[in-house]
Write a structure and sequence with these properties.
Elements: H1 7-22, H2 26-33, H3 40-52, H4 71-83, H5 91-104, H6 107-118, E1 124-127, E2 143-147, E3 150-157, E4 168-174, E5 186-192, E6 198-203, E7 212-223, E8 227-228, H7 234-249, H8 252-266, H9 268-272, H10 274-300, H11 309-332, H12 335-338, H13 352-358, H14 369-380
Parallel strand pairs: 1-4
Antiparallel strand pairs: 2-3, 3-7, 4-5, 5-8, 6-7
Helix pairs in contact: 1-4, 4-8, 4-10, 5-6, 5-7, 7-11, 8-10, 8-11, 10-11, 11-13, 11-14
Amino acid sequence: MKLRLSPEDAAFRAELRRFFTTRVPGHIRETVAAREELTKEQMVESMRTLDAAGIAVPNWPVEWGGRDWTPLRRHIWHEEMQAACVPPPITFNASMVGPVIAAFGSRELKERFLPATRNVDIWWSQGFSEPDAGSDLAALRTSAVRDGGHYVVNGQKTWTSYAQYGDWIFTLVRTDPDAPRKQAGISFLLIDMASPGVTVRPIQLIDGGSLVNEVFFEDVRVPVGNLVGQENHGWDYAKFLLGNERVGIAGVGGTKWLLAEAKTWAGDRLREDPLLAADFARLENDLLAVELTSVRVAADSADGRAQPASSVLKLAGSELQQAVTELVLGLAGEQGLSGDPAAGAPPWTRPAAATYLHLRAASIYGGSNEVQRQIIAGTILGL
């Protein structure tokens, strides 16, 4: 999609393009372009570079480092960032817990955590899913029992991305097991991962990586002051957070970049194979639709409320990511299966299989696509 920009917005785009291509360290952008795994240090350095320029968390309130940009400018920011192969700000910090604390946290929590969250002095992990509470998140059983000035937390979380890097974990816990509705007895608690009783155990994935983990809590004492908002209102804050997460999962900018690169990798095959050309045309049309939805969701979320349309974006965006990585794997053929730098394959083929396998999980995280269909049916279609 080529937006018709005003002279002011065109200048804004050009300024961001210069920044992303000249100020973000080249070794970071080269790693993203090669579709290789970023180190923790690279992710932190990238976000701190953006924060130093005041553009790491434009969706936050201005008081806490946000920018009073229009939805169009936020879209331009995200598009130019991914077009330049700049990793987006760490989602757990920038798009998940930061906005929740800014919207619902006490003044003390905001002052304590937001500057450190923005600058990645704290790396946050997400403690939502459990072994028996994934798609049905409200079935979670990790408990937090009040004991004087502390909660005592017991339970287990799973699929916790990058928990091996985590300093703190924002966690959904059950504080009222007798609530009439299971959603009504949940609270949003911030837990120091260095606390006694917290254990992290890695999970090896089908792509060979171990970016997700199990996290165990055994009699972990958490100060009551680490509660975000009101006790037993955590489900409301979780819905707000998941609305932001689903928009990010769509990955429009990264998908656009990868599809454009795939056309160059296809080379003569794109002209010689009409079926392949039709596949590209279909994906480009789907991408345009997802991008337009992304702009609309951003505009409709200007008041800070989660929008049901974010479920449409998550559903369509994750399926599009999977379709594009499947196309790339098909282009790579046998060379994409080895992943061996010594096999003589073009560099772009080497991560093809791992990327394809990794993104199978996009249908699940952030709320499974089946759940998104239920949300769309109930809240948008009224079925």
